Amino acid sequence: HSSYIPAKDLKSVNEQMEGRFVGVGIEFEFFEDTILILTVVGEGPSKKAGLLSGDRIIQIEDSIVAGKGLKTDDIVELLRGKEGSDVNLKIARRGDDTPLDFKIRRGEIPINSVDAAMKLDEKTGYIKINRFSATTYDEFMDALADLVEQDKIEDLVIDLRQNPGGYLTEATRILNQLIKKRNALLVYTEGEHAVKKSYETKGPVRFIIDDIAVLIDEHSASASEIMAGALQDWDRGLIVGRRSFGKGLVQEQYDLSDGAALRLTVAKYYTRSGRLIQKSYDENEKYERNAEDRFESGELTDVSKIHLADSTEFFTINGRVVYGGGGIIPDMFVPIDAKISDENYLSTISHVSKFTYKYLDTHRIDISKMDADKFVRSYTFPEGTFEDFLTFINEKGSGISLENALPYKQDVLDRMKANIARMVFGKAAYYSVVSSSDTMLEKTLEVLDESEAYLEK
Known about the structure:
Structural class: alpha+beta
Shape: globular
């Protein structure tokens, strides 16, 4: 995992970790060779200027960008600039016959690492963390404060699925809030040329949380595994999902004189019980194929197929046996949806995003009259929407019949609703929609009250 970061990429890499960048505040995607604005960052420069999700960018300054076959990096380069400088855009908006002109003053845009914070039931809160950046602890505590003080939650679900990690200190600061015991060892690092360094809890706990669950999957890595491993070792939280990625290496970044940087591995992470988080990298080819091997071995659908690279027994604070040698094995296993290996399913849902854009073009006015809560709670698609979707994908040459696609009708409509929620109302609304059909979350809520039974010897 040691790597060289060229100067041209370093700024972007650092921005992700620092949690902010200078720009106009939009997320976009190419749709039919046109730049489609997916979301407009709340209270950012584009929002203040009046841009809307669904707008098409056809010109940036003097450059025509529609139909030119440009790449994402080309567009980012045109939109980025110095803080306080202006950029002129020409926008095509459905319902307006002529293009609209906008002057947008570039400003600092936050890159949030907490995607959503919401109440799941009468006493359970949910916080989704997408990475551990320099702002994660503050974002997490702000979200937790609202859930505890306003929503009166008692239990908490922390979603670390797909979270690749980031800053160790942000993860340990959050653990400091979740584990009540002072001077509790959370994680330690050690390397051949690096002295052992321990991270312990310190300072007061601001909020009292009863039961905790952490959701992980095969893409949860690094700082995500440190958080899950610490809570598991202290029997403080129920770990739910599938075995995590297995990246437990400490890296230090060294800036070079030409603006590039070296990121060097200097040590390894170990949990309180002594488990090594890092999976074996003795065989490079096997290491690179790890994700495919897990799927092909059946590990993602059958807990008995999890391969223990290290059969050494380690013990949690309550004396439960846990294992190391690569990743964190959950206390409660939830298999991956078997449909991901179904070609008809994959072919069907691959077209959902593009159809959603077309649908939103004709229904935006009605949807925009709703607030996020009402949309999540009550919006339903008109009769015939799924049939319109089938017509659309067959025009694209998918060749999927109604018979083959019909079993996935609800999946298609659920994904459409989630996509619309994200584009019109933001990520929090998106997660509110997807939570209603999230099997892992559903199973977590079923057992959260009895989670102590999982955490006993």
